[in-house]
Amino acid sequence: MTDLATAAINYARRGLPVFPLVPRTKRPACAHGKDDATTNVDQVSAWWEANPRCNIGLRPPRGYVVLDVDPRSGGTLDALGALPPTRTAATGGGGWHLWFRHDGRVRGRLAGTKGIDIKTGSGYLVVPPSIHPSGDRYRWIDETSAAPLPAHLLNAVTPPVAAIPSDLDWRNASGSCSGLVQTVATATEGNRNATLFWAACRAVEGGADPAVFVDLVQAAVSVGLTEVEAQRTVQSAMRKAAAA
């Protein structure tokens, strides 16, 4: 059994849902991507028996957030301020994943910083001992328990309350639907489905070109929804608008 297979099984036994990634990538190697993540040891074993070289994707359980610091995008540990000891991994790309306990709505990126994303169970992480495309390993550098999210980061993690734009706001001066797409592309976690649904309804009512709906789905995926989730929301909006 490879170290990757052993690690994946150990994560599952600890109640951490995992799924396989294409070797040396972040791309899912299973039919439904992160939605297939499981703690079922038999299923996890079967995946890594089929391909022992698969990287490991992990969905953080409810009650945890992971700050993904990427120096290549300008992220730094100093930008986080003073931190308590907490579970931390060094990524294969030269960054860090810092785990904290926090239960509540979060935004996709840490406010007021560059290069620091926020990961929750709505997405996934690549975890040790996965191998980065560069050949470097992800590795744990602090395996202590996750600390509570420091108070000074709470506002930077929590999204603002976003209001859905009024029906008069969504078209630009040329009558284009680009405003709808932009609204979806900037939606924060906790508002993404509602914003996409609203935008798709407005697009249907306005007789938008079919390409607009493709753009809406892509915008929703860019802020963290899966393609399946986004397509279902758009289809639901279409049915509602048609019935009305």
Automatic annotation (TrEMBL):
Residues 181-243 form the Primase C-terminal domain. InterPro entries: DNA_primase/pol_bifunc_N, PriCT_1. SMART domains: PriCT_1 (SM00942), Prim-Pol (SM00943). Residues 8-153 form the DNA primase/polymerase bifunctional N-terminal domain. CDD domains: Prim_Pol (cd04859). This is Bifunctional DNA primase/polymerase. It comes from Gordonia tangerina.
